[in-house]
Amino acid sequence: MEEAVEETTQESRNEYARNLVWTTFYFDEKTVNTCDVLLTRQFLVDRKLLKKSLATEPVGQDLEAVKAKEELEQEMGKTEKTDSDEKLPTSFGSKKTSRPLPRSWLGWIEKMDSKAYWESINEYLIYKEMDEQGQEELLHKAVKNKPAMILPCHEKLKNHADDFVEIGAKYEDPGQRMEALAKFLERRCHQDFLALWASARTTRCRKYLAKMERLGIATGLDKKKFTVPDDTVTPVIDSDDSDDHGEEAAEEPQASSSVETQPIYDVLYEVYEEGAHLEMKLGAKSERPQAQAQPSVEEAATPVYDMANFSFAYDPEKDAQLLASNACELFHMDKEIRKYWFQRYRLFSRLDQGVLMDREGWFSVTPERIASHIAQRMVTRPGMVIIDGFAGVGGNSIQFALHGAYVIAVDLDPIRLKCAKRNAEVYGVAEHIEFICGDFFHVLSQQRFQSGQSIIDAVFLSPPWGGPSYIFEKEFDIGTGCTPNGFDIFEAARRLTPNIAYFLPRNTKQNQIVHLAGPGGKVEVEQSCLNKKIKTITAYFGNLCQGAAK
Ligand code: MGP
Ligand code: SAH
Prior knowledge:
Belongs to the methyltransferase superfamily. Trimethylguanosine synthase family. Its main location: cytoplasm. The chain is α/β, with parallel strands linked by helices. It is built from 22 helices and ten strands. It has helices at 2-8, 47-54, 63-81, 100-111, 114-129, 136-144, 152-155, 161-170, 174-214, 247-250, 256-261, 327-331, 335-341, 344-347, 359-364, 368-378, 395-402, 414-426, 440-444, 478-481, 486-494, 510-517, and strands spanning 16-26, 34-44, 266-271, 385-388, 406-411, 433-437, 458-461, 500-505, 522-530, 533-541. Strands 3-1-2-9-10-8-7-4-5-6 form a ten-stranded mixed β-sheet, with helices on both faces. Helix 5 (114-129) packs antiparallel against helix 6 and helix 5 (114-129) crosses helix 9. It is elongated, with a radius of gyration of 30 Å. The protein binds 7-methyl-guanosine-5'-triphosphate and S-adenosyl-L-homocysteine.
């Protein structure tokens, strides 16, 4: 068993993790309804396995296959050149100009409240602005009481000289006049403060969105939401980030109703390491390819099996078409599968030792190095019980078992479960896995899994994403993109345990993951970067989340 774990970690000395961003999402204006999110990136290496996969030539004059192979070869080339930390870019986008004043305002104004601000400046302003007769004494006091932070617009309150004269003219009594002018000043200061406070928050949220985009993270958040929810004239705080400036000033303020309909109200964040940006192929591709000869996954009819007579034992004759090492002949005309063939040993390093895969297995199996890393994180003690709710051909179940867990592998499709069972035998861990052919929801509703009696330590979820075309959407929707609905899947798992790892596309909407964690929740979203390309993400909940108490 150890040998098999070692096989997948030979290159692991070159691997490392990075914390990218820590975020708090506010679900509404009450600060108690928050969710903490940690975005991390795990750099994994499987160059040797990729190199081995690329060693075969495409069959005949298959130009598409040549192209698929060339793309992967480029990935190899890039990897070899950018093997070490130092080679990573050292800043987000373009260099920043140094304008220290606006930056200090952003942090300061958000921590201040309007009342406290007025208290800190009122003496100074009143002495300064009321100095109608130019009394030396008042001027002296004003200078002496100047607060450390005063908004630039309040240094120039003389701009309101007309208002002052108008208000002043209404009162003959100097005491009353003074009081009226002080009230006017206070109102004006509150208005200015609140407008600037909202503007600072908008700037912060916009910066967050811009940075997430650059990190290759689909936020699922609407940029328009993060505008000042008020149509009063707003003094705009200058952003010192040259990479995202311009946008805020250009856009019209939104009506507050758009804020109410948005699920996430506000965001606080901290970028751990500015140099974490990577240039790589991410998110939506520009165009969908022409219609394929093969039916899409959604169109393909679900075969009906005679379960009473179905055998999960491998039959070398009857099941020959499942032998992964023969897939080149079986699938070489299948354009969708071809690119996975050129990555085959990174899917299963023991592919030539009898591994079985059906068509869906090829494009949905978790690459071995990623599955091994997830297992390393999830299996914290020998014998712990993990449900692999969508086991497929066993990529994850096998790694959980190799790392010492007892696995309950569930899959609706008997053929794929047969592959998983056989593959577990190839890796010598079949005895550590219980295979259940059935619907995830149905299996979880069984008496032995009900909470209270449950012995389940964690659940791993890797449902179908609608086939390889998931990447043609700019952002992946957990609800409609997963089959069955990804929110329902998560809810069913949560009834069993809070310790859930959710394996999702790299373009998944981040705000939906935040919603899964919910108010008061916490989640770690880990990008799995294989040879410097982000392949997938895994969202860890409960005690699987980094820093959670075990
Ligand atoms: P991919 O994006 O289709 O491949 O899937 P790749 O090689 O990154 O393609 P490229 O053209 O973008 O370079 C990447 C990985 O996601 C696969 O190896 C699978 O592990 C996983 N994966 C893909 N799909 C379509 C599914 C799915 O439907 N379900 C699950 N659970 N995993 C999938
Ligand atoms: N992680 C797996 C791949 C999972 S692919 C691996 O590494 O091999 C998703 C799997 O979910 C498919 O095999 C599909 O048959 C299965 N599936 C789809 N709907 C299901 C359901 N309702 N219950 C259980 N399994 C389901």
